[in-house]
Amino acid sequence: MQYPSTRFSLNSSSTPSAKKTNFNSSNFSSLSINSNNGTYMPYYDTYPENTTISLELFQSLAIERLRILKTIEQVLAKLNTTLSVAPMNKKDEIEKLIRKELKDKLNHLKFIIFPSFTGASSMDLENDIISHYILRLAFCPSEEERRWFITNELELFRYRFQILTKAEQLSYLNDSSSNIKQFYELVVDEEKQQYKECLIASTIIKGLTNAATIAKSFDSTTYFRVRFQHVPDLVRKRSCFLARGYAYVSDNDIISFVLQHFRMNISYQMTCSSKKYESFQQMDTRIESILKMLRKKRIHGTHTNIHAFNDNEQTETITYDMLSGLSKRSFPLCMRHLHEQMIQQHHLKHLGRLQYRLFLKGMGLSLDECMKFFRHEFVTNGSMNPAQFEREHVYNIRHAYGQEGKHTSYTPYSCMKIIQDPPPGVNEHHGCPYRHWDTQTLKQRLTNNYDINEETVNEIIDKTKNHHYQIACQIFFEYQHKVKNYGVGINHPNQYFNESRKLLTGATTNQNTVNTSMTQNTPQI
Amino acid sequence: MSNEEKQQVDETFVTPWNLAIYYRRIFPSHIYCKWLAYGEPATCSQFAQREFSFTLENDVYRRYLSFSNHMEFEKELIKLCPEKIDIGAVYSAKPKDHKMLSAAQFYPIERELVFDIDMTDYDDVRFCCRGADICSKCWTLMRFAMQIMDRVLHEDFGFEHRLWIYSGRRGVHCWVCDQTARELQSSIRQAIVEHITIVTGGKDSSKRVTLYTPLHPSLQRAREIILTEFDGYACLKQDFLGDDQRIERFLRLVPDDNILFFLILDRNKKKEESINKVLQMISPGLDYDESKNDFLNLKFLRRQTLRELFSQLTTSAERWAAFKQHTDAMINSVTSSTKYRKSAYTTLIDEIMFEYCYPRLDANVTKGMNHLLKSPFSIHPKTGRVSIPIHLDSLALFDPCKEGSVPKLNELCQQVEQLPKQNLPNEDGSGEKTATKQKDYNQTSLKPFIDIFARFVQQSQTSKRNETLARSDLNTMLSGEI
């Protein structure tokens, strides 16, 4: 099959035609291999034209790459981390798991995950780039798919880049076939010495690295000068020296810059592509069906257990006066805390409101009931005047239920989102207790407010210390419901709630007449 | 503030009549519009696609207003007479048409990098006022915040055009107007906020500042700034160790020593001897009584020691000095083999100063491009004060609590009403009107602030040419061109 150039020209706006190279297999390799021992990283800023590829290969390349991305996504979700935040020892674990999952499952793209000592052939490189561009094409139309694709391509990129040796990384940065060279300067010795103290002080993150060790390796460290916009990760963590808009990045951290470069290119180009995609009429039906299949395949499997919880599955009708009772029995700690704060303070700050409101929606509280609840707390019990409530809150509540603005029905937050979102600030109560409370507070509250026995508290604390927040939540769940090894991983507050109701209402139907104490608190289930 | 009180304040300060005079004769709309056009012609998209929001009488909000040029802006301003003006982002299309456009057609493209610092966020570390109230004492916090932030924005991020504004009530805003700043993506704005933010966590966390030695250069600078005034501020103005409640609040920041830790390190000595040695070190005069076996209770020793130490002293200054001495002694007494423990003390004094004084930002205002922020020269509806620019050189001195430091709406109106009759605006010729208007505010107490603003606008436009270079740099990167 002739590779139709128009299809990939979707991206042509961002790649000036003069720079396009007409590829064939032979000159392809000369352009892209950038190290001697054959380990190889592509830039993905040019794509092959006038290359022929069979439809079968087209399809299997795309499926393989999708498999890689999905595996990475699953492994990271399972370990509840990302490669960018994971500490060193965990990175090895992640890499091992990825390799284990993909063992014997790859053919054309095997070298991406299992680089061989002999290096990649020119065919491999072409497959790498083609598969990347097929998925770009498949996932460019919708924003959510774009974000998914970019997130996981970035993780893949990171996985590959950190396997490279320092010399290989440098040669990647130094390759004249990419525009990356325009965006950094090497810091000359004179400047390096001038800023010595600042550079050393900025490299020490959270006291993990010793000042003396860094000072020792200072002379052999290469520093790069880049615009601060190009290393947001380092700016955020306060782990690079900043002067007049430039960030000084050591060769250990340069991956942040490389990734940001990759991210900006890819996200800009895909946004451009998406705008053209809509107007793109004469798509070959065979290609179109493959792209459709890819989109379907992405959702299938990975997302079966991550339910959107946009509509409540429960059959029980929930009214707002039931919330206090329910919160004690069936809310995860994050929501229970928000509820208690709401009752105590008669107010929640913006992010707390968002998190709690969507959870309430997800558990099936109707718009009317939700409105009643907020009005009751803010106005009746609190000190807000009714006019202010109408003005500032009615719209937002309706908005969350998809009744205002874009009319999108917003999805309740998953654990992943709650854990990764900005931590609660002063007087804020959103977030994940296991992630955002300090150990002392968590311990104290679990013991005093929630009556958890010491053994369980210690178990929970232990998990949070090892960053297993969702497992800590599960232990809380098991304790609360007096079950052991309940085989459902908690990955969504609404899932927690639904599982809880399943257990508890199951109990009430069985022991309908016996269990009167329960029906007092949760009427009419 | 009760409703009745509010009513009273409204009547005294902000009346539609006063506002009408203000917008017609005092509000510097031509400089204002020049600012938001950033050197582009009057009818440019910069200005025409900018979102304004007016708060009208009875708290009616009108979002997504936009004006095709300066004349239209001024006309509508006088006609609608808003109690408050907010400025939003520059959008991809005219905001007034937003209802006809889809999300793909209507999105923010540019926005000044803005910061909002609000005194209410400091309520747990100020003892003079609460909520919306401010006084000269706690205003020191805002002066710290402005000086620290301004240096970060300039020295770390290289921003040249920083406009600091007193919000009119209890806080300050900063508008960073460099071209590069206006084009920043939301994720990078967030990174900047996190770079600056040190005080994290809600009330749930007992200690919210954690520092590591050596401090990051930008924090070293912040520390220098805080040090200039900390003792005077915390001990005298706030009297932060003045009573038991404040002392308890303070002690929450002091880590409790775990005596077991020290014991492990002195393993080769006899247990009792070892415990006593440690006790002498952290709490002289206390003996460990093996018979009681109150091993675990010793955990709370340090706070208790400080409590006792403080009770023997009377003033905050003495207590703070004693605390510093005590901590220094701890740092020096701990041997090098207890480095880990030592690190908890070396940063402790800094951490406490940062907890009490370091800027606390409203992150959401900065992160989103489409967040509204109260405009300079808008009137604060509750106080009647004008949101005025603060000169960069006087960030360390400005104090809105000083009598006469911030012009009020009713004062300004009185000042223009006392002007000789011939200066009243002529309703017929609009050109003449502008000329008269200029004269009017020149004779009010708002003049110095308009001068600051005018100079700022002048400067932010002259260096535009240099910035286009940096901008093309970024755009090339975005487009992925070689």
UniProtKB/TrEMBL annotation, chain A:
Residue ranges annotated for the DNA primase large subunit C-terminal domain, each copy included: 326-497
Pfam families given in the database record: DNA_primase_lrg (PF04104), DNA_primase_lrg_N (PF26466)
GO molecular function: 4 iron, 4 sulfur cluster binding; DNA binding; metal ion binding
Entry cofactors: [4Fe-4S] cluster
Entry's transmembrane regions: none
One GO cellular component, as annotated: alpha DNA polymerase:primase complex
InterPro entries: DNA_primase_C, DNA_primase_lsu_euk, DNA_primase_lsu_euk/arc
Sequence similarity: Belongs to the eukaryotic-type primase large subunit family.
Protein name according to UniProt: DNA primase large subunit
Lineage of origin: Eukaryota, Metazoa, Spiralia, Gnathifera, Rotifera
UniProtKB/TrEMBL annotation, chain B:
KW Glycosyltransferase (keyword) present: no
Gene Ontology biological process terms from the UniProt entry: DNA replication, synthesis of primer
GO function term, MF aspect, one: metal ion binding
EC number: 2.7.7.-
Alphabetized UniProt keyword annotations: DNA replication, DNA-directed RNA polymerase, Metal-binding, Nucleotidyltransferase, Primosome, Transcription, Transferase
Enzyme class: transferase
Region (Disordered): 419-440
Keyword Transcription: yes
Any GO CC annotation of this UniProt entry: alpha DNA polymerase:primase complex
Basic and acidic residues biased stretches: 430-440
Family indicated by similarity: Belongs to the eukaryotic-type primase small subunit family.
NCBIfam families: primase_sml
Protein name (database record): DNA primase
Species assigned in the record: Rotaria magnacalcarata
